[in-house]
Amino acid sequence: xxxxxxxxxxxxxxMPFAAQADISVKGDVTVGYFQNKAGDNEFYGNGTxxxxxxxxxxxxxxxxxxxxxxxxxxYDGGGEITSDDMYVGVKGAFGELRMGDTDNGCDAxxxxxVVPDIWFAHSSGGCKGxxxxxxxxxxxxxxxxxxxxxxxxxxxxxxxxxxxTVGPVTASLGYEAGDALNxxxxxxxxxxxGKVGPASVGVRANRVxxxxxxxxxxxxYSAGANTFxxxxxxxxxxxxxxxxxxxxxxxKTTFIVEYQDEDDQANAQYxxxxxxxx
Length: 278
Description:
By secondary structure, the protein is mainly β.
């Protein structure tokens, strides 16, 4: 039934009226061979997703809606579809307001992550608040962007962030506070990113009130059809390493290899596979 629903959704997005209604459908199909943390080898679809987005302009305002579906087709062959990034909003000269499953004020301006990871990622300092059930306002003013958010559900929390660019360097500062952060904790996040030619580097650091400072460094280098990326992290006194390689085989197809290891894992994780975008 779930796979039938997926087929119907794609068919609707491809019908002629979709362009008139400003509805877009995009995504990818990704399949690979993996070793998990337990050392088991698996072959299945991992990382596959598709997104539905639509908007309409009413006067000076644009109203929009978005939903992202992640498709997990693990070795049991059952297939499972879960929703993500399900939000509605409005944007105009005043900025942009989103409601639903969307980034909080800290995540909406964070700039410390630059690599195109598909399956794995190293632990790194960053925002800790949930990206669900948020009301987030964001506005750009010249070289600076600010965002604030409130989560009214259950364990309420608030977040705020600011991002600015000076020359080749972009910096962000975020702050989160509330019950959703393990009991009225406060979290301060700093992000830095920059690009020099074909290389980009990002740094993220955060400190939860009363805890240690966590730091993550990541970088990516592109040369022709080849993209190499790496990450190193130190979070909660655990070191992590992350490596990845992608090669474009065409305009829509990509070969992917990724590797990730952390101090508390019994085995390193790796994946090798193909992704086709549509």
